[in-house]
Amino acid sequence: MVPRLLAVPATLALLAALAGCGSDDGSDTASDPTSPESSPTGPTTTCDYPDGGAASKEVSAPDTEAPASGEVAVTLTTSVGEIGATLDAEAAPCTVNSFTSLAGQGYFDGTTCHRLTTAGIFVLQCGDPSASGSGGPGYSFADELSGDETYPAGTLAMANAGPDTNGSQFFVVYDDTELPPSYTVFGTIDDAGLETVRQVAEDGTADGGPDGAPATEVAIESVSVG
Predict the structure, then answer these.
(1) Which of 52, 174, 190, 202 could connect to 197 by a Cys-Cys bridge, CB 3.0–4.6 Å?
(2) CA gap 173, 38 in Å, rounded
(3) Which CATH topology does 14-24+44-57+68-225 take?
(4) Mean predicted lDDT score pLDDT of the chain
(5) Structure pTM?
(6) Residue 189 forms beta bridges with which residues?
């Protein structure tokens, strides 16, 4: 699905900037995860990752059983520097499970962050191998929302094309941003990574507008877990 951007009024276009693809057909096919269950290694939950159109890069869907507690450290090595992040498996187990699975399969390697917004909302959006804003991993999954989500600077959250259409696209919030609680928050980035993203934002977009490809290319070289 092509992100809903140009066809909406200017007051809505900023929210549409976070549209991404989890499902190419836009259908709400993902179901909510079950409640956490106990296991010898800690609580787990069962996730559903149904097919969601053609994958932008060949990848396997994650295991359906996901850890439902603890934090996961990841490092995004990019062309502008390292961005360290801490993922919250308790708040968003299915999202973290998907992200770490994609990272482990090299899905993000060699991709570019295709969108920067500099007015109204302040995010850098990444995770689409096609760099078109419409690419995804070939599966989707449900939102993990409490209804109390906020998006301060340093937030790591999922982009989507509507309810339960999460895939691989995510965004980094580099300045406090007001958004409806519609985007799954699954972690935070560290202070050094936040400063790196802010420096990219200072250079603006390639065309000088408030929403577009960053003027300074941000290429993800690798994402390491742990």
Answers:
(1) 174
(2) 34
(3) Cyclophilin (2.40.100)
(4) 87
(5) 0.86
(6) 85
